[in-house]
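JOB MANIFEST
job_type = single_chain_structure
chain_count = 1
residues = 697
[input]
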Amino acid sequence: MPDTVDALGADLERREGPDKVHGIARYAAEHTPPGCAYAWPVAATVARGEVTALDDRAALALPGVLAVLSHRNAPRLAEPDDATLAVLQNARVPHRGWYVALVVADSLEAAREGAAAVRVSCAEEPHDVTLRTGHPGAYVPEDSDGTSGEHVRGDPEGAFDAAPVRVDARYRVPPLHNHPMEPHAATAHWQDGRLFVYDSSQGATTVRDVLAGLFELSEEQVTVVSEHVGGGFGCKGTPRPHVVLAAMAARATGRPVKLVLPRRELASVVGHRSPTLQRVRLGAERDGTLTSVIHEVTAHTSRVKEFMETAAAATRVMYASPHGRTTHQVVPLDVPTPSWMRAPGEAPGMYALESAMDELAVALGIDPVELRLRNDTATEPDRGLPFSSRHLAECLREGARRFGWAGRDPRPRSRAEGPVLVGSGVAAATYPVVVAPCRAGARACPDGRFVVRVNATDIGTGARTVLAQVAADALRVPVERVRTEIGSSDLPSAPLAGGSSGTASWGWAVHEACTRLAGRLADREGQLPPEGVEATADTAGTADADSDYARHAFGAHFAEVGVDTVTGEVRVRRLLGVYAAGRILNSRTARSQFIGAMTMGLGMALTEGSTVDAAFGDFAECDLASYHVPAHADVPVIEAHWIEEEDPHLNPMGSKGIGEIGIVGTAAAIANAVHHATGVRLRELPLTPDRVLNSAL
């Protein structure tokens, strides 16, 4: 066997990169079967009510229009577990933007023209779309998964009242939107009772299972392909209405149908990060030791389906404190259903907690890095479990060294460059280790090559490459001899790419299959048969087994900003992150993930945010002209580093998820830097020029 280099950790380029550059990689909307038709949705224009009349005659009279589907004639679906997928099944309008019709035509232009010609009348009903403190509809959701609801230890209120130093602050994060580069799209067609779908999704196995249930088919009768996905950040984590509509239209017309959702409608139908109202109370001794941590969160959900932005969950694992309470409340409103967005819960929650920690450091006169070090802990405060590994202190110290934190003058407004005030801030980050059961197969071919098969989804993270590295490491062969097949529900079933769990889940099954294959090959003599030798793995019962450890990744973020006192503009000059995320499997793709998440956190801090129009019930910022994601000019030098961390309590690779921890502390570090620069504490994101100028700067 030729010499091999340790595949795991190697700085390998993404395998699909050249295909994407040359336009060879095909996305869901780029598959056009013969006879393909096109669909365009019709959205409700009332915030709540019921369709009373729908006139489709003008639409059907247009050249090329094939059908207009509505609740009157659309195929009937079995009742879904996710009520957002019950599209065109009745006349109810639960929120503005809910789809009430779908036009199918020979061309995209004809479908769009037909949708504009459909006349819909609705009986409007009173609506409420405004999240506010003290809303009478607020309730504590059932804590079925251990993250929502209320958790209490000790006497948090009593300890807070008795603490010599206290912080009591309220923070607000607005609705945020995923806005992947590739809008949600699906191409569906039926053949001999089977359903074939190309979908822009983070998990083809889940889409297959849901479609099979909705159309009352067996799983073997449905194939879903998600070979290349142009981003998702959570909003493609589970099936969305577009894929159901495409399948319905294909069944109704007997032709393949392609549906790409208009970007302006994404905010209403594919989920968003729920706005959060957060109150954080910290009680501490004069030496900085925390005695009480109280974090209360209120978020909105829709009346269609309950979703809780569990922003206080991370507070339960961060800092040692004998007394604590974390509470989630949710308010059902006439709004679109919120859903996952990168680091759901942790991103807005850690913004509030880490901002409050900075406020406490200022009140105590203690360095913000030192305050966090003094409250580090070897056991998870909420459950008392030991951490499988926790190197937050090392991340803080290494980040401070690289950033030059020791030279920082702690006094606000201590550094100015003309009208620009310069400041620096720090924040910690955490994200849980999530692993789900997965199946995988591995085959040794007679020509000396290997094929790994698993229905993983590559949403731009380099999954093909990293899984090949995992396989090569287990087989002890050069990575060039390993080919990965992913992105189809006909492959061994796998969980979705979300929750920073993809590589850990898929890689565990791939490693196990390849280890078994290596054992079989070691027992063989002579040439392999023409069909090769195979091995399979199923990690159910092991990957999802309970652990005696609290398993989390940790990190530290440092930011330097310049605040223009004339214009109110905040410019981030430097961002630096240091992470402890187990074994890094590919240094190149890992750095890309960290930097991408930090950039998203920069947007959360400075530019991103939307508002729900109280009168009309829709999101005012619903496209990339009004919802401002960071452009190249907004992104400064960003550094991402990590420490070497060995953790034997995770998975065979010793890895933790890295896709989301990079966003978790970034917004807080930037907001803390703005306070250091100006001496003014802003507690509502984003930190736009108008808010800066109105802050008595």
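[summary]
The chain has a mean pLDDT of 97.
The radius of gyration is 26 Å.
exit_status = 0
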